[in-house]
Fold Plant bHLH transcription factor ACT-like domain-containing protein.
Amino acid sequence: MVARLRRRTATGKRLHILRTLTCSKSVQRKSITMDALLYIHKLKLKLEAIKREVASLVARKREYLSVMKQLQLPKKEVKVEKAEKGVLVRVRCEKGGDKLVSILEVFEEMGLIVLNARVSSNMYFAMEAVVVAEEEQHALHVKSIAEAVIKAIER
């Protein structure tokens, strides 16, 4: 008799907990059980929706990363062109190191003066500069300037 009473109270406690978790308003054992099953079914549906959303986000992330990979600049890009007042030097490469200092040292060694320069290092290192020879007797060779700048970047 005592064991039966204990089982009843334990079952009553479990049903009370189940009622609280599922927000069931029923008092009958069968109704509480049905409400719990319905609650579990709704949770499964929500879980499936979340899994689909996560899969969608992962696919978007992969797509974004592949687009970013395609947009990445080459490791080194140096363009040297003749301009009105000297030579226009454009440099783009990955960030890191003292690239600006190295490039300016190369210009100094070659006897070049920087008239105008723009430098950016947000996502990558970029520089655009107009350089002229110190003395008018020096001829500016586009190919030699490009090679010297590439060597400076590699240092």
In short: The first helix runs from residue 2 to 22. The chain has four helices and four strands. The chain has two domains: 2-70, 76-154.
